[in-house]
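Review form for a predicted model. The reviewer records the input and the model, then writes brief findings.
Reviewer: anonymous (R2)
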Amino acid sequence: MASFEAARGYKSTVKVIFESAYRTRPDNPEAVLVPVLDCDLDGGRSLVADKSILGQFAPSKPSQGNMTAGGSIRMTAGLHMSGIIMKMLCGLPVTTEITAAPTLSGSPVKVGPGLVKLPCAGHGFRHYTQVTVRGTTNYDGVYIVQPESGADDIVIEAIHVDEAFAGTETVKRGAYRKLKAAAAVDKGDGLVGLPCEAHGYNYGENITVTGTTGYDGNYVVHASSTADEIVIESVFADENFGGAEEVASRFFRHLFKTSDRLPSFTVEEEIPVDAAENNAPFWLSEGCKISSFSYSSSGSTEGALDFSLNATAAICRNALETAAGSVKKFAHVNFTHSDGELQLGGEKMASAISSGINVGFSLDTTNGYTKGSKGTLTCLNEDDITIGASLSCHYTDTKLGEKAADGVVMDFVDSFISKGSQISFILPESQIEPKGTKPKIKGPSGITIEAQVQGFQENNAYEAPFVAELINGIASYA
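Model under review:
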C-alpha cells in the first residue's frame, strides 16, 4: 500500500491584502500575516441542470453557473492585530496620540486593606489599566487601576500614607522603565541595543527615551529586541548609561466606526502539500467584504478572546505564486476574556457573566454580476446593517428589567484591557429587549438574567451605530 503524508494546518499561513479598489490590488502590495484559529473560505461554480427534452430518458449536459465564494474566518484578538481586523470591518480609523496625563488633587484615602484611593477627576482609565504615578512623595510607581475605582478617583494597591497633592502630580497610561547601568550595543545595520531588564515592550510599539546623551527621542521597538534589551534604529553612539535614564510607552487612540462603504480585501492562504514544502499552492479569495462580525466573551472562558468573521468574495482561485509584495507581522500578544469590563449607560455591570456583539451587513450578491463578467462579481454593494448585543448577568436587582420596560436608550460598552492597551466595542445608542429579561429559576444554583440588546443610530456624537476604540502602541494602520 502506498504511503503518504497529509498537509497539516500548523504549516499554513493566512495573509490579508487590502485592495485599492474592488478586486484591484495595489502594485507590489503589502500583506499582513493574520493569526487564525481556522479559515474556511471556499468558492466555485455550481452546475446548472439542463431541463431540455431531447427524446431520451437521461439528463442533458449541465452548464456552469455563476462563481460564488466566501466563508468564515476565526481570528484571535491581538493587542496590535485587532486594528487590522477592525480595518477589515470599518476601513481606516481616525488616529490620535494620547499625550494628556490627568493630575491628582486632594489627599489619598484608605478604602480597604492594601487599597488606596487617589483623587483624579475625569481620568478616563478603565479598570485593570496599567498606569504610572509620578511627582508624589509616597506613591510614585507603576500600578493597575482596581475595579473599585470611580470616574473621578483611581484605586491602587498600596500602603496608605498621608499626603496632600498639589495638583501637579500626574497619572500616565502604561509604565516607565529604567535603562540598566550598562553600555549601548552596536548591533550593526543601523541598529542599537539599549539595556533594559524585563522591559515588557512588544516589537512594533512606539517608545520615548529620555535622560541619555545620544539617544533621547522617539523610536519603534525592533523585532530583534529581547526580554532585557530594546533594539532601536539609530546611529550608534558610544554611551554608558547610569541607570536613571528612562523609557516610556507612547499610546495612540484608533477610532473605527462603521460606514456605508465597506473596505474590500484579498485573503491569501498558503497551504503546503508535502513534507519538503516544495509544492505550496496559494489560494486567493479576491474581492472580500465582511458580511458579519461577532464575538462572545465569558468570565469563565480561559485564554485569548477571538473574533468570528464571515466574508463574501468575488472569486476563490488557486495561484502558483504569492500575490504579496511584502509581508508585515505584528507581535502576537492577545486580549483575554478575563481582563474586561462591561458598561451599560455608563454604569459598570459588576454582575455580568458573559457578553457579545454581532454586526451584520446585507450585501447585494444578486445584482453584482454584469454582462461580460463571465459569471463573477464585479461589484458588491452594501444593502443594510444590523447590530445587536447579548449579555447574561447574575440577578441582583430589578434595574435591567426596568430599563428594558421603560425603553431607556443607553450606550453599551464592552472593553478588554491588557496593561496600557485596550479595545472597547461601543454601541452608542441601544435598547434592551424587554422580552427575556425575567430572572430564570434553573434549579438551586444562582439566578441569572439573559438579555438581548439592539443597537441603532439616531443622535450620537460618533454619528455611527457601531464604534471600536483601540488604544495601543501602534502609531498607524494606514
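Findings: The two ends are 54 Å apart (CA to CA).
Further findings: The longest helix spans residues 82-90.
Recommendation: see findings above.
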